[in-house]
Amino acid sequence: MPGSEPLGPNVIAFTGVGDPAAYPVAEFGRTLRQVLVREGAAALSYGPDPAGDESLRRTITQLLASQGISTSPESVLVTSGSQQALALVCQVLVRPGDTVLVEEPTYDLALRLLRAAGAQLIGIPVDTHGLRVDVLERLLEQHRPRLLYVVPNFQNPTGATLSGPRRHALLATARAHGVPVFEDDFAGDLRYSGRATPAIKSLDDGGHVLYAGTFSKLLMPGLRVGYLVVDGPIRRRLVETKQVTDLGTSLLLQRALDRFVTVGRYQANLRRTTRLYRERRDTLRSALTEHLPDARFALPAGGLFCWVALPAGVRSDALVRAARDRGVDVAPGSRFFLDPTHGAGHVRLNFAVQPPERITTGVRRLAAATNSLR
């Protein structure tokens, strides 16, 4: 996770985001130079609009239209990654003591951010079809939350995708209770199998869904450019909060990203990355099946993560230590639960970071560590 101590070169890490070797460094570097040659010092100034560069916002709406989300540049707020999108929403909507509903398990840094805002967090269980909508209505009535946070595509950490019927039911239920939905679509473009399911935002005709996306997971994590699609009066408050927080996302990066997307390099990189990560996902499946046959997992249809239920009696905290001793790093399941003990029987593996041969070697090491704890 961000901020963890660096790992040695011989450690095979199933943590992190993507493979630096797959980042389009040369292509994006050329794009940056082209922007600087064309615009000069103007590209290094503050942008005129804290909501983001107008051309990039227009390009984002075109990308979203291809995913069934109809919106306008006036509804898009460019952010410093999707993490800032959630941070801004917390600043505007959430007050200390407010209740926020989250999937359980869910993205650990979202939990930390919401807790830092003083929110009282209530978990909703997740199964192979995503958030349990049958549990949602009771919790909405019982707790009257301020916000519902959900990762419907290739959920972090489980890899589950919220089914189409559940998306419709989630939106209808949240709307009936007047609870806004924060839809975190951090890796929705990275699909390896099956058909895409419409975003919850694409079903929303009343401004109930705040939709966050990012370019960081597909391109380069350090790019730190994301966006928030939001309608209604709250957008103005979010833009004002963004302005006083950081004055605006880097104009140079926005202009370069806009050009990178509009000349087709983004789509080409998406196709290349999807092929690469699909192969790595399939390699992980084969390695787990061969070397950890009594572990249970569901093959994710996309994204970055595989959620592994450990053999009976093996705890993730002990496994993380034993695995580190054998040169492999994994994320303990405890990190993703409100009560860390509920994740003691799971680990999260990021299959995108390592090439196939290191994935196989890493799973062998993980199996050895697991067997040492039986």
Automatic annotation (TrEMBL):
Domain (Aminotransferase class I/classII large): give its ranges.
48-366
Molecular function terms, GO-annotated: pyridoxal phosphate binding; transaminase activity
Q: Family, per the entry?
A: Belongs to the class-I pyridoxal-phosphate-dependent aminotransferase family.
* Source organism, top-level taxon: Bacteria
Required co-factor?
pyridoxal 5'-phosphate
Q: Quote the Pfam families the UniProt record gives.
A: Aminotran_1_2
On whether Transit peptide is a keyword of this UniProt record, the answer is no
Q: Output this protein's name.
A: Transcriptional regulator, GntR family
Presence of keyword Transferase? yes
Question: How would you summarize the oligomeric state and partners of this protein?
Answer: Homodimer.
Q: Which keywords are on file for this protein?
A: Aminotransferase, Pyridoxal phosphate, Transferase
